[in-house]
Design brief:
single chain, 86 residues, alpha+beta, 2 helices, 16% helix
Length: 86
């Protein structure tokens, strides 16, 4: 299932829009989330570890979240990476 999610989300972190290679539970298992495709998304290591077992702000209850920056955009205007859970 991991590969399917990586392909679906095109290896883009669904929280910050950077390259992502980890899978995150949108609704954490500890909060009643399920281990199903609709509750999984790609996340970069920094966002995934920063989120831990918390709910993402604005919980993505009906669909996997969309990137917050355009695909391929890995730097903000001041050339520093931006991560959703910094």
């Amino acid at each position: 299932m991991r590969e399917k999610i990586l392909i679906r989300d095109q290896n883009i972190c669904q929280y910050c829009g950077q390259y992502g290679n980890t899978i995150d539970h949108i609704i954490p298992l500890s909060k009643g989330g399920l281990d199903i495709e609709d509750n999984l998304c790609v996340a970069c290591v920094k966002c995934n570890s920063g989120k831990r077992d918390r709910m993402a702000p604005g919980s993505f209850l009906s669909a996997p979240p969309k990137p917050t920056t355009p695909a391929g955009s890995s730097f903000s205007e001041n050339k520093t990476e931006r991560h959703y859970f910094d």
